Backbone:
């Protein structure tokens, strides 16, 4: 087994615990892979306000809490995918996203869908580089040169747990499976 076969599993109480056969995030090869986050409070309860903006805010807050627990930052986001119920919610998602992540402009895909699990209106997943690299994902030059592999930093001061295991089993649940 080589060093690249090691996968760290991230678990923080600042985001809802997985309710299916998956983990909040994994770290491997200098990257953080965040599972789809629904707009569920960290204690597992549903939001008292089920409006689209409140749901988008909570889903992004969950993603950011896991990103931080993994030892990364919004400036290190590489790719974000948002699943939204109804294309009519796209402008509202853009407004919430821009307000919460004003300096992060990773590659992003918004996928309108007919419905999500439990009737939620938004789900978001992400891929990020680990913090600690000389240049962040947001600092990539316009010349198209790669920024290089991110450095391997330690998780953020006990903000979450990292469980290390060797690669094995699928460890993946379907997005939104709770």
Residues:
């Amino acid at each position: 087994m080589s060093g690249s076969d090691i996968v760290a599993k991230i678990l923080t109480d600042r985001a809802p615990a997985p309710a299916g056969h998956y983990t909040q995030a994994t770290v491997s090869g200098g990257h953080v892979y965040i599972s789809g986050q629904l707009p569920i409070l960290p204690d597992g309860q549903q939001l008292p306000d089920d409006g689209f903006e409140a749901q988008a805010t909570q889903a992004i807050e969950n993603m950011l809490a896991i990103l931080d627990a993994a030892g990364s930052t919004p400036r290190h986001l590489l790719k974000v995918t948002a699943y939204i119920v109804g294309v009519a919610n796209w402008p509202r998602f853009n407004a919430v996203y821009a307000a919460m992540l004003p300096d992060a402009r990773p590659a992003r895909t918004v996928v309108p869908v007919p419905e999500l699990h439990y009737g939620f209106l938004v789900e978001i997943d992400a891929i990020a580089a680990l913090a600690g690299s000389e240049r962040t994902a947001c600092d990539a030059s316009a010349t198209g040169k790669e920024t290089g592999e991110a450095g391997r930093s330690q998780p953020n001061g006990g903000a979450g747990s990292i469980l290390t295991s060797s690669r094995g089993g699928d460890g993946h649940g379907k997005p939104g499976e709770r």
About this structure: The first helix runs from residue 52 to 69. The helical segments are 52-69, 90-100.
